[in-house]
Structures are given as C-alpha cells and as structure tokens.
Amino acid sequence: MDSFIKIRRDLHQIPELGFQEYKTQAYLMEYIQSLPQERLAIKTWKTGLLVKVHGQNPQKTIGYRTDIDGLPIEEETGLPFASTHEARMHACGHDIHMSIALGVLTHFVQNRIDDDLLFVFQPAEEGPGGAEPMMNSTEFKEWKPDLIFALHIAPEYPVGTIATKPGLLFANTSELYIDLKGKGGHAAYPHQTNDMVIAACTLVSQLQTIISRNVNPLDSAVITIGKISGGTVQNIIAEKARLEGTIRTLSPHSMQKVKQRIESLVKGVEAGFECEASIDYGSMYHQVYNDEEVAKEFIEFNNQEPEIKVVECTEAMTGEDFGYMLRDIPGLMFWLGVDSPFGLHHAKLDPNEAAIDVAIRVMTSYLSYKGTRRDPG
Questions:
Q1: What is the dihedral of CA 158, 4, 291, 374, to 10 degrees?
Q2: Which pLDDT value is given to residue 377?
Q3: What is the rounded distance in angstroms from the CA atom of residue 83 to the CA atom of residue 73?
Q4: Residue 373 pLDDT > 90
Q5: Would you say 321 and 285 are in contact if contact means Cβ atoms under 8 Å apart?
Q6: Fewer Cβ neighbours under 10 Å: the N or C end of the chain?
Q7: What is the mean pLDDT of the chain?
Q8: Are 362 and 328 in contact (CB under 8 A)?
Q9: According to the model, what pLDDT value does residue 283 have?
Q10: Taking Cα atoms as reference points, which of 321, 200, 173 lies closest to residue 270?
C-alpha cells in the first residue's frame, strides 16, 4: 500500500472537531519529526502546525494550506478503517487533504528548491473557523507567505481532474441561529399562550422570500434552515423554538442585504407573535477569490500535463475559510476530483484514494516551477 494512502486511513480513524484535533496534531507531528530535520522548522499554534522547508536561495515564501478537522457525523461507510470516534467523521475529505500535504512536504524535504515553503496545517475549518485567528497569530505573521495554495476534494469529478477558475470560486457564508421565546401552556388553552412553533414555521416561510424578492435575480444567494427545534411534548404549546441554518452569497454586499432583511423579518415576528427573538450569525467565512494571474498561470501550467484534465469550473455556494488567507495573500484554491457517488458531508463519502497521488504530483510539479530561479535568457 502507498504510504500516503496508509496515512490517510490512519487519519480517517481519528477525526476530531475544530480546536480539539489533539490526536491529529500528534500524528502529524510524529510523521514530520521522522523526516530529516536539517531544513525544517516547526511551530505549533493551538492544535495546528506551521512547517517551514528552507530553500537554497530564498527570495519568497510559498504557502500550502491543509485543513485538519472532522465533522460531527456518524460514519456509515462500513470501511475497515472507519472512524473510531463516535459521531465524528472525516466527511469533507480533510484526511485526504492532510495526506496530500504530507506527501508534498516529504518531496520538498528530499528535493530542495530555491524558495522557502510553508506548510500550514490549519484547525477548525468546519467551525468555528481557524484561518482568520491563525493568520492573526504571532507564529503565522513571522512566517507569512508571499503566495498560498490549497485544494478541496470534489466527489463529482473523476480522478485525474482538477477544476478551478480565476476570481470568485466559493461564496461568502454565514451560520444563522434564531431563538424565539414566547409563553407556553396547555394545548387546550392556546388563547393563553404565544406558540413558538407557529412563530418559527411562519418565520421559515418568510425567510424564503428574501432570496426571491430582495436579492437581484442576476446575483445568487441561498438561505437554508436545516434544523428546527421547539417544544417538549405533544400536548404543551411551545414556549421556545430555535432555527439553525446557513446563508450563502456571491458578494459581500448581498450578504449584508440578506442579513438586514432577516433582522427586519425577525422584528416583525416579535411584534406579530408578542415574543422575544435573538439572532446569532455564528461563524462567517469570506469568499474564496483566486488571484486572476495566478489562476491563469496554474491552469496553463497544468494543461501541459498529459495525465491531468483541467476544468475551468463555475463558482460554487460552498464555504471555505481559506478565503481569509486569499483576502490577504495572493494565491489559489482548486477542486480535486475524487469520484465518489456520495457528496461532501455525507455519512457514506468514500473518496477514491488514487487522487492522493494525483494531487501530490500536481503540487510538487507546480511548486517546483514556482519556487525555482530561472535565467531570464
């Protein structure tokens, strides 16, 4: 078995939530410390790692970021290396991402280039968001790269395919939590209560009008309420209800407008149902915006690789906190085809592990090109 497939399977068994990646950090550290240390420097930040590979004649630092956390999902793959952590799963491919990063790191420890490389093992991508606080840390600022790259698995593309585009790739995203509190009571006396189940259902319907009536039809936005909870038993009118969802927009302006309309509608529900309401936007992620020139170069470079199919894709409503890094540092993210019938965040997601070698070859080849001096003549 390929060593990086084995690493992926090891990591797949120990998924941990954001800022709780203690076993994951220890596993990564043990592997990295097994490599020759002469050209390596390592910093820790919370449960993440920063690993610098010193170049021969550095004029810049090129970054490569991977996320390391899992999701609160009970795995249903039936794989012999399935998660050993109850209700935890690498259902977004971060185990694949980490094994690729270690493969690329190993290559450059053994095959030195001119420029410095910084490998960023970032915690808490799934929440509450690790990229922005990591970037604000002293450790990251001391080694801040001049360029940065990342990838994300894509179940819908076959192995051997990478997909990206210049400009906007992923949406602006925000979590959404709305709590309603009224007056509960006996089901036989509804006139003496303020039913928060009815208030919640009314609000869900109203929220869906924001996209159809308040967002420019030529723009794109999504409001999804994925969870409603309220009440205690069948014959008591609910005193409290909670809505949990997500907002996705293709522009920061639309995100601001959508939130303004949410707040207006919630105030209306407060007045109409004589209740109290609160809104929490939770984690908010900046859009992933690929540097135009870097993306064009990356696409042209990989179009010359006969074993790689490059697709110029359209933007997606996916959220990724790598967007914070691209906001401050030129770079690019791309989709990596893994050919799975089950999508991201699905309990049966089973990426094709052959994609690991594909990604290692793509990134070692491209980073070698970017990080090596060439005579102008």
A1: -110
A2: 38
A3: 10
A4: no
A5: yes
A6: C
A7: 96
A8: no
A9: 87
A10: 200
The CA distance from 40 to 105, in Å, is 10
Nearest to 173 by CA among 54, 39, 56, 321: 321
55 near 114, Cβ under 8 Å?
A: yes
Separation CA 49–CA 29 (nearest Å)? 8
pLDDT in tens, 122-140: 999 999 999 999 999 999 9
Write the pLDDT tens digit of every residue in 85-123.
Answer: 999 999 999 999 999 999 999 999 999 999 999 999 999
Catalytic residues: 67, 126
User: 74 with 87: CB under 8 angstroms?
Assistant: yes
Residue 323, C-beta contacts closer than 8 angstroms, at least 6 positions apart: 131, 170, 172, 285, 286, 287, 288, 289
Q: CA 292, 296, 300: angle at the middle one, nearest 5?
A: 175
For residue 193, what are the CA distances in angstroms to 177, 190, 230, 242, 273? Answer: 23, 5, 14, 17, 10
Tell me the Ramachandran region of residue 44: left when phi exceeds 0, alpha when psi lies from -120 to 50, beta otherwise: beta
Is pLDDT of 375 > 80? no
Residue recorded with tokens 């036989």: 188
pLDDT digits (tens, 9 = 90+) for 263-281: 999 999 999 999 999 999 9
Mean pLDDT of 49-66: 98
Q: Position of tokens 């089973």?
A: 350
Could you give the count of Cα atoms lying within 13 Å of 161 in the half-sphere of its Cβ? 17
For strand 147-154 and strand 331-337, is the pairing parallel, antiparallel, or unpaired? parallel
Q: Which amino acid is at 374?
A: R
